[in-house]
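Tutorial, part two.
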Amino acid sequence: MKMPRRNILFIAVAALTSAAALFAQRPPSPPGKAEVVLAGKSVTIDYSRPSMRGRKIMGALVPYGEVWRTGANEATLLKTSVNLEIGRAKVPAGNYTLFTLPSEGAWKLIINKQTGQSGLDYHEDQDLARVDLKKTELPSSLEQFTIEFVKKGADSADLILEWETTKLSVPVQVAR
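Running the prediction step on this input gives:
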């Protein structure tokens, strides 16, 4: 049975309107997840992914010399089911919040024992460790903040944070 053209046009318009409405509802900083398996155990980071949207990021939206929530919205959550060494810090299996301390030169990754707070609720007395991050420049600008693990071996990976033209990294391995 042949469908009248008017019905086809109506269905097409309805589908496009629905797609546009869904796109408009997409949050400006959607959720992201970085995952790696080390020594058979899961390590994940749940975070929000802000975009540049024409803004200056490093030294402006992400000010130097002030603790940054390392993403947007809620605090960035590290969950590990294995004891880790992140840089030189011993991190027991468990849940932690990640913050960073940006600067024009060296950056620090802050591993904080408090969890479940907003990304703006930071308490230094809850820090488990502060770890040096290696900073390099990206060859081109990256629009959306990204966290990922790059696996190096069965029990090691690099934790990578990238945004604008900044790349930060730190080695992660199963604690010995």
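The longest strand covers residues 127-153. In part three we will examine how such features are distributed along the chain.
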